[in-house]
Amino acid sequence: MDIPAHLRYSTDHEWAAVEGTRVRVGITDYAQDALGDVVFVDLPAVGAAVEVGGSIGEVESTKSVSEIYAPVAGTVVAVNPAVSDQPEQINHDPYGEGWLCEIELSEPSSADALLDAEAYRALTES
Fold this sequence. Notes:
- By secondary structure, the protein is of the alpha+beta class.
- It is built from four helices and nine strands.
- The chain has a six-stranded antiparallel beta sheet with strand order 1-2-3-9-8-5.
- It starts with 7 loop residues before the first strand and ends with a helix.
């Protein structure tokens, strides 16, 4: 299982790439593997205000439908239209082309509460 060291993670299996006050969000390799083949993605609207742990969309796979939760609070400033057209990108490249949205942080320190790679690995192995 791939857990890049430069990213932060939520206990709900979302990853966050923090760059200044902007955070790119996706689901982890662990999550996409558990879901199976992703066939549909419902992304948040640009401009939507999100709270930590609030639902920002859904990922539907051949096995189930799972909520996507915001790992940070802020405003959605971008979404990845490519995953709407090719949701399998989440399976093939969850940390690259399979990203879901970008959030402008309303409270920059909120990203500090996310897990580092070591803590997320411990979570997935327990």
